[in-house]
Amino acid sequence: MGERWILESEIAELSLTAMARGRHAVEHGRLLTKTAAIEQADAPAWLCDRLRERRRGDLAPPPRLRTAWIAWNDARRTVASLRHETEGGTTADGCC
After folding, report:
1. Which of 24, 30, 43, 86 has the most CB atoms around it within 10 Å of its CB?
2. The organism sits in which domain of life (predicted)?
3. d(Cα 41, Cα 71) in Å, to the nearest integer?
4. How far apart are CA 50 and CA 17, in angstroms?
5. CA triple 30-31-34, angle to 5 deg
6. pTM for this prediction
C-alpha cells in the first residue's frame, strides 16, 4: 500500500512538471529542465516546495488528493488553452 501511495504522488508531481515543460516548449520552442519546470509549475508555493524537496531526493510526499486535484486542473487548463490556440486549422506553432 505504501509504495502505491508514493507512486500516485509521483505521477501527480510528474504531471505538474510535464505541463510546465509543455507550456514553455510551445511558447518558447525549447524544453525546460525538470528543475526549472518546478519554478514554472502552476501550483501553490507549498506544493512547489515539496517538489523541490523531492527533486533533491528528500522523501516529502505531498497530500495525495490535493496534489492530484491540482495536477488534474493544471493539465485540463493547459490542454484547453492549447486547443483554443489551435482552433481554426493551425497547429500550436502557427503552421498549417
Report:
1. 43
2. Bacteria
3. 10
4. 12
5. 160
6. 0.76
- What is the chain's pLDDT, residue by residue, as a tens digit (96 residues)? 455 555 577 888 889 999 999 999 999 999 999 999 999 999 999 999 989 988 888 877 667 888 889 999 999 999 998 887 767 545 444 543
What is the total count of domains within the chain? 1
Rounded CA gap, 60 and 38, in Å?
15
> In whole angstroms, how large is the CA radius of gyration of the chain?
15
* Residue-number span of the structural domain to which 29 is assigned: 2-70
- For residues 84 and 81, give the distance between their C-alpha atoms in angstroms, rounded to a whole number: 5
